[in-house]
Amino acid sequence: MLNISKKLNPDLNHYCGDMRSIKISKKYDAIFIHDAIVHITNLNDLKKVLRTISSHLKPNGCILIVPDYFKETFRSSSIQGGYDDFMQGLRYLQWTIDSNPRDSVVECYTTYMLRDALGNIKVENDFYQIAVFSIDKWKELLSKEGFKSDIRPIAINDMEPGVHICIFAEKC
């Protein structure tokens, strides 16, 4: 993934590390976090991420966090898609559900069907959990790390149409 990002964004700095503990000598005016944050599924790890972000921001720096879901916005869903070309193809079906609304994770089940150049079909299944913290919990944790936060609507891109909710936070 890092190599792909370097090709797509050659003018940006790229670092490989654990977002809970990475140490970079440079300080930034702004930090953006999107998809990766949903894999931080417990509060202790989320606190570590926010502390790490804070340590890498300049005074009055800001962060933009765009998690896939908040507790208040999650709805079970399924999506499907894929592609076909002359020699091969891929189809997928993803089902995202909340089997325990009292916890802070939802479950993602994905089935992939892959067709190779000889027409052979291979089926693979994947399962993972992603975080769904409440807006109030995000704001509470950010406040404890010295941030003033605001919840805002944001349009991401054509691949993820619609309006999403993001967290904009400024270091106090």
UniProtKB/TrEMBL annotation:
MF terms per GO, please?
S-adenosylmethionine-dependent methyltransferase activity
List each copy of the Methyltransferase type domain by range. 2-65
Q: Name one Pfam family in it.
A: Methyltransf_11
The molecule here is called Methyltransferase type 11 domain-containing protein
Q: Which organism is it from?
A: Anaerobacterium chartisolvens
